[in-house]
From TrEMBL:
<dbReference type="Pfam" id="PF07992">
    <property type="entry name" value="Pyr_redox_2"/>
</dbReference>
<keyword id="KW-0274">FAD</keyword>
<comment type="similarity">
    <text>Belongs to the ferredoxin--NADP reductase type 1 family.</text>
</comment>
<feature type="binding site">
    <location>
        <begin position="193"/>
        <end position="194"/>
    </location>
    <ligand>
        <name>NADP(+)</name>
    </ligand>
</feature>
<dbReference type="InterPro" id="IPR021163">
    <property type="entry name" value="Ferredox_Rdtase_adrenod"/>
</dbReference>
<feature type="binding site">
    <location>
        <position position="42"/>
    </location>
    <ligand>
        <name>FAD</name>
    </ligand>
</feature>
<keyword id="KW-0521">NADP</keyword>
<dbReference type="InterPro" id="IPR055275">
    <property type="entry name" value="Ferredox_Rdtase"/>
</dbReference>
<feature type="binding site">
    <location>
        <position position="205"/>
    </location>
    <ligand>
        <name>NADP(+)</name>
    </ligand>
</feature>
<feature type="binding site">
    <location>
        <position position="353"/>
    </location>
    <ligand>
        <name>NADP(+)</name>
    </ligand>
</feature>
<feature type="binding site">
    <location>
        <position position="12"/>
    </location>
    <ligand>
        <name>FAD</name>
    </ligand>
</feature>
<keyword id="KW-0285">Flavoprotein</keyword>
<feature type="binding site">
    <location>
        <begin position="149"/>
        <end position="152"/>
    </location>
    <ligand>
        <name>NADP(+)</name>
    </ligand>
</feature>
<dbReference type="InterPro" id="IPR023753">
    <property type="entry name" value="FAD/NAD-binding_dom"/>
</dbReference>
<feature type="binding site">
    <location>
        <position position="346"/>
    </location>
    <ligand>
        <name>FAD</name>
    </ligand>
</feature>
<feature type="binding site">
    <location>
        <begin position="353"/>
        <end position="355"/>
    </location>
    <ligand>
        <name>FAD</name>
    </ligand>
</feature>
<protein>
    <submittedName>
        <fullName>Ferredoxin--NADP(+) reductase, actinobacterial (Eukaryote-like) type</fullName>
        <ecNumber>1.18.1.2</ecNumber>
    </submittedName>
</protein>
Amino acid sequence: MRQFAVIGSGPAGFYTAEALSKTYGDGARVDILDRLPVPYGLIRFGVAPDHQSIKAVAKRYEKVALEPSVRFLGNVHLGADVSVEELLHYFDAVVLATGAPNDRRLGIPGDDLPGVIGSAAFVGWYNGHPDFADLRPPLDVEGAAVIGNGNVALDVARILAKTNDEFSGSDIVDHALRTLTGSSVRTITVLGRRGPHQIAMTPKELGELGHLQAAAPLVDPIDLPPPEADGMLEPGQRKSVAHLRHFAATPPDKAKPKRIAFDFFAKPLVIEGDGRAERVIVERTALAADGNARGTGETYVVEAGLVVSCIGYASPPMPGVPYDEKLGRFPNEGGRIAERLYAVGWARRGPTGTIGTNRPDGQEVAERIAALFPPAGAPSGREGSAGLDRLLASRGSDPVRFADWQKIEAAEVAAARAGAPREKLVRVEELLRARRH
């Protein structure tokens, strides 16, 4: 019997567990560990609450978790409850699937002012992540700035712009819905250093902005390249730019009180304010021959009492594991970090790709592990789950099993407001309490 441990229960973790389970069948046991009492990682805490169709992939992960060869162990803290070194002692191979949950700092003066929030924190707040349940984003302001030109920036802008009715059918948490309902934000400025041809926004997410009940998207036609230049773009990118062209050509609906203003060629220099964020000093940029943005020296002010930075994420370092500070991930070769230690997903690649990108990642690492430990080979004699259980018990750890999660999920579904799929519990103690009923 082979014994494997996967650290992290998001998409990368479950795709890896699925691949290992299919490769070894009954000849292996896979333990999926997570520090939170609930599974699914990015699906639960990162995907926008109004994108329920994307969250449906959790049903696939549920099937994996219910395989006899797979165990979910939530509420297990790496470092406090068990170390990577100890896992390598008990298991044949350990796979890091921890994602990239930490925000990258803007790195400009004023980025530590109250009112400046990273997207991981802001998204975690409206998605019910226990780490951000007490976040108090300042929505008593008229202007908000969203820094970044990717889908996360679009999610943040859309959530800020939606009406209460537009959250029907979503699983946005109650504390965020109540706060957003009372929001004073009227202008959301999306700042990007480069231009429309360099955005990382997908057509579906951009297109949604054209159908908001109370907000109109604005694009300055002067920022758009000549239409014939769109021919050089990939089809998906061309569709995204077509949305921007449509926004630029459509007069704003005066009946809609909110605006989502795309400000391209805009480099934030400083965030200013008297004890809190009040404005962003922005420098106008131009594209150089190498495609990078260069400052022109022209500056202007964007009024913003809320600044949400959507410029990327980093994986947290782990004791005893090599770490690349610059790239914010674990250095690896084809997913291999060191002997019997691997990385998948954002922990391996950095925060790039879609949810589905993690599937071939997990498959590749499973194949590398199978080459090292052939499914028909002799067992190593490592204790695996039994040794881990004994260690966790000796340290007073209280793991949450998948059957416990199913009780938590049932409690959340039962507590849902009308039309919503669930009302997430947002405190660890609440989650642990719910599994006992």
